[in-house]
Amino acid sequence: MSANTDRHADAVARYFEAWNARDPEALAKAVTAAWAVDGGYTDPLADVRGHEQIAAVIAAAHAQFPGFAFRPTGKVDAHHNTARFSWELVSEAGGAAPVAGSDVITLDTENRITAVLGFLDRVPDGA
Fold first, then answer.
1. Does 127 score more than 70 pLDDT?
2. 38 within a domain of the structure (yes/no)
3. Model-level pTM?
């Protein structure tokens, strides 16, 4: 049973703003808005902490998939300080989505992300 609230939806929206920021200055600002100072991000390919390292992981994803954007799929399911949601990486030119996953985030008392546990559900060969 979900107890999704605006705070969860807002945190997830800020998360996607960060993942879709391409300009280094906009990316740094979006990461700062979404994550706590000592927040972390862990998935099968990365395990980082802090704004600078998180921004570097996001920039690397854009370098590997230029012209793609992260989009949520489905609803945010949430309770207490935790939310989970699914996403896909979509080509802005053709609409193909070669990468998809699910993430679980934990929020602090200021509704900033303290931890992300990411799972890759679909990844192209060689990626």
1. no
2. yes
3. 0.94
